[in-house]
Amino acid sequence: MKNLLNDLKQDLPAGLVVFLVALPLCLGIALASGAPLFSGVIAGIIGGIVVAIASGSPVSVSGPAAGLTVIVLNSIQQLGSYELFLSAVLLAGVIQVILGFLKAGIIGHYFPSSVIKGMLAAIGLILVFKQIPHALGYDKDSEGDFVFIQVDGENTFSEILNAINFLHPGAMTIAAVSLAILIAWDKPFFKRYTFFTFVPGALVAVVSGIVLNEFFKTTNPIFALENDHLVKLPVAGSLSEFIGQFTLPDLAGFRNVNVYIVAITIAIVASLESLLSVEAADKLDPYRRNTPTDRELKAQGLGNIISGLIGGLPLTAVIVRSSANINAGSKTKKSAIIHGLLLLISVVGFAGVLNKIPLACLAAVLLVVGYKLAKLSLFKSMYALGWEQFIPFVVTIVAILFSDLLKGIGIGMAVSIFFILRNNYKRAYYLMKEKRSEGETITIQLVEDVTFINKGVITLTLDKLPLNSHVIIDGSQSHTIDLDVLEIIHNFKATAALRGIRLELKGIPEFKGVVGH
Predict the structure, then answer these.
(1) Count of the separate structural domains present in the chain
(2) What is the DSSP string of 415-476?
(3) pTM of this prediction?
(4) Residue range(s) defining the domain that contains residue 64
(5) What is the pLDDT of residues 27-38, one digit of tens each?
(6) Which of 105, 460, 480, 484 has the most neighbouring CB atoms within 10 Å?
């Protein structure tokens, strides 16, 4: 009981912060996906409660994902109805559960650290760039649209330029006040007092934003924010209206081949995004805990099965919410569950109150989250690790900024793999030279694993060996020597005497192919 209360001291405020971050994102992603607004909230609730309970991650938070927006939009149009699309979401969940049992989660361990950190920094910068228009009072692009080319035809940077032409004094005032509160809340001076450690600054910023806007309505209507500048949570006038917001899947879709194609696409993309997000969350976790990836796939699959059954969008683990959770001081998965319960309570009884929240003060919350993900210190630390880490890091950032998450990760991975191959090409052996009375002795000590990647450098080295030398090729420390490399060595053995080279092989297996052909 004591441990539960200690955890709640950190998890309850963190859950409140994640709820405030998740609410506009759930609605914005649904809007950008061409789906019912309530579908985004359903996915947020399931991600917060069901997936959090089933997952082994202590800090990751799941919900509707910006990375799936374009796929969802195109799939709904292709299938012709949202009900058919829900049957694809249900099937995608089943596929994810199967992938979990097949232990496909191991893929998550093969993303290089430089790429994961690049993804975190890119998400941070995207948050900053995407929230600037909302902080200035220009809310044409919905929350949750994180791709470079937006649904409205604009891009990340043109949207900022447009916002400068439509400055809203009320939004700017509310955003500035909210930012001031959030920055002050993190100062060591305030941390000394219990109130400032238990009550999250994000909650105070949101309450202040509501109060300020209500004040503007009565004293200075020019500053007041209305309609598109506020949260737009669906309001149910009765229990029957609330139940009517849920949508059932069209199970006839199981006879439609296109439903299966959409399901496989969602399952693959959602699984990759989830694995990337939990890997990134583990790196941010101050307790350095590791998430069981196979269990994560099963949890995500369960979430998508339930989401598809009751009308929700497909969901994944989401790094924006997860990082907000960690930065708010979350200790266990209870914070994610609390955020899900708050989403549920909000749509049941407090939608009217929440619809008074200005998007400008939520933009301030996300600006702070973005800044913490893309701090200058991260760039400095990656630069200090050398070009082989820094270049894939920067390429990943740029690629994600100008495309989307998965394309950017793919480009970052390609660059990272190039450096891995380059290093393997260079580090196939250790070469030692020793001058002796009878001439020069050159020892080529092969490394632990010599693969076909090393063919080029070994061939060049053997070609450049001096005439009339004594050469020792030592493979005694190698666990594996690729057949391609063995062929090169034995070809060299067949011709070494013609160059006056006395060759000695140690621990080099016989080559069973046809040497010289």
Answers:
(1) 2
(2) HHHHHHHHHHHH-SEEEEEEEETTEEEEEEEE-SEE-GGGHHHHHHHHHTPPTT-EEEEE-T
(3) 0.84
(4) 2-375
(5) 999 988 999 999
(6) 105
